[in-house]
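Exercise 7b. Backbone tokens:
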């Protein structure tokens, strides 16, 4: 892949929305969307300076780890970013800062996330390209779609909905200040969340079918390998070669 075909990425995001039955409006629950797409979701408090997320794929097992300490727009965008990795068949990725893609694969996942969270057709109906869009309107649109102000400004520009093009984009980005408060900033995890039962069962089933190794199972369950081995022994599920 030499360069990104953004129109193609837009089509892929629209295609997946159709497959998942979320054709147009804002995505309020990115975790449910990932689950519906066949990705097991794990939310953990990784700290405000921790990585935004991670995507892990092992044959038929796909897992997205999301940092629950990030505010809601970033949390949702990261989930959509990991969904992009899943859609394009990534072998795995650690996303330390989802807003700073380091390579073409990460840029593609970001483009996919933006297109998926803010469909061009829906945004075009909400924003009139013939009218000037002040910062307050851009912020209102960001809150309506559940994305950050910055993401919305870039999306408006990429969808050719800003009078003045890149100049207007930069003007809007420069206007972003502390006086603009995102309405959806309160997605926080104050303590370690329990792993979903379905996640645990599917991870153990993957081990039982020898799709993942013992050490990989320990990583997926965020447990010490010795603890996992003890639990599997008690349940009589430990493979002979792991004893």
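Sequence design result:
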């Amino acid at each position: 892949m030499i360069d990104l075909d953004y129109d193609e990425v837009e089509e892929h995001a629209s295609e997946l929305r159709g497959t998942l039955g979320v054709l147009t409006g804002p995505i309020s629950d990115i975790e449910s969307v990932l689950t519906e797409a066949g990705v097991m979701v794990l939310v953990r408090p990784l700290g405000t300076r921790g990585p935004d997320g991670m995507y892990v794929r092992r044959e038929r097992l796909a897992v997205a780890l999301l940092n629950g300490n990030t505010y809601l727009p970033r949390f949702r965008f990261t989930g959509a970013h990991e969904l992009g990795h899943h859609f394009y068949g990534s072998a795995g990725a650690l996303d330390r800062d989802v807003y700073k893609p380091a390579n073409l694969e990460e840029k593609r996942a970001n483009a996919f996330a933006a297109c998926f969270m803010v469909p061009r057709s829906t945004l075009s109906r909400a924003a009139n390209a013939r009218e000037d869009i002040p910062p307050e309107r851009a912020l209102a649109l960001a809150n309506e779609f559940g994305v950050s102000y910055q993401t919305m400004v870039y999306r408006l520009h990429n969808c050719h909905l800003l009078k003045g093009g890149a100049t207007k984009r930069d003007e809007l980005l420069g206007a972003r200040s502390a006086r603009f408060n995102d309405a959806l900033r309160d997605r926080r995890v104050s303590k370690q969340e329990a792993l979903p039962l379905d996640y645990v069962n599917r991870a153990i089933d993957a081990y039982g079918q020898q799709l993942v190794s013992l050490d990989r199972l320990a990583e997926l369950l965020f447990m010490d390998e010795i603890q996992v081995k003890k639990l599997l022994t008690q349940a009589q599920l430990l493979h002979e070669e792991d004893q």
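Instructor comment: Residues 188-192 have pLDDT under 50 and may be disordered. The longest helix spans residues 72-87.
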